[in-house]
Design a protein that fits this description.
This protein has 173 residues and is mostly helical. Among the domains are: 32 residues, no CATH class; 70 residues. 71% of the residues lie in helices and 0% in strands. It is built from nine helices and no strands. Helix 3 runs parallel beside helix 5. The longest helix is centred in the middle third of the chain and has 24 residues. It is flat and about 55 Å long. It starts with a helix and ends in a 12-residue tail after the last helix.
Length: 173
């Protein structure tokens, strides 16, 4: 496995090293923030952090995100954590992060311990939550209603099913 991972890393570095043209320029411009979209994200993050510092208990619901963006009064609407922080405060961000990290830990634990449908559900929740980490920094991910509802429903189902020894609901721990 170590040889496989080393090979994948070497191939990835080689591809990035020999990459030329528009894709190379796009990647470099994104990394050094000379791309206008990347720079806009950073400006929005800084505006949101300033709002959280000035108002640690939040400015109120609708002050950041899609609603305020439609009106034109958006403050820090390019990061899920900043949006939560601007709207509900720093305590809400910490609670959100604790739930998110706890859910990833529960998914890993249940994937290792259980078998059958519970293991499959744990893997599904784990992969979706890990896959949504990067979009969380660049968008209001909880506003994608179907993804959000299905993911949190599966998370609640996993949490409930984790109390059972097997898939038989009559066998509690």
């Amino acid at each position: 496995m170590k040889l496989f991972y080393a090979g994948v890393a070497a191939i990835s570095i080689a591809v990035l090293f020999y990459l030329q043209g528009d894709i190379y320029e796009f990647i470099i411009n994104t990394i050094n923030f000379s791309d206008s979209s990347s720079a806009f994200h950073v400006v929005q993050w800084l505006d949101g952090v300033e709002a959280m510092i000035s108002s640690p208990l939040g400015l109120g619901l609708g002050m950041s995100g899609r609603v305020s963006g439609a009106v034109g009064d958006n403050i820090g609407g390019e990061n899920q954590l900043v949006i939560i922080g601007v709207q509900a405060g720093i305590i809400a961000v910490l609670i959100y992060l604790a739930i998110y990290i706890g859910l990833i830990r529960l998914s890993i634990q249940q994937f290792k311990q259980k078998k059958g449908k519970i293991k499959q559900l744990a893997l599904c929740v784990l992969l979706v939550k890990i896959g949504m980490i990067i979009p969380t920094f660049t968008a209001n991910t909880e506003s994608y209603v179907y993804i959000s509802y299905i993911t949190w429903f599966c998370a609640g189902l996993l949490n409930t099913m984790s109390w059972y020894e097997s898939e038989d609901p009559l066998k509690l721990k």
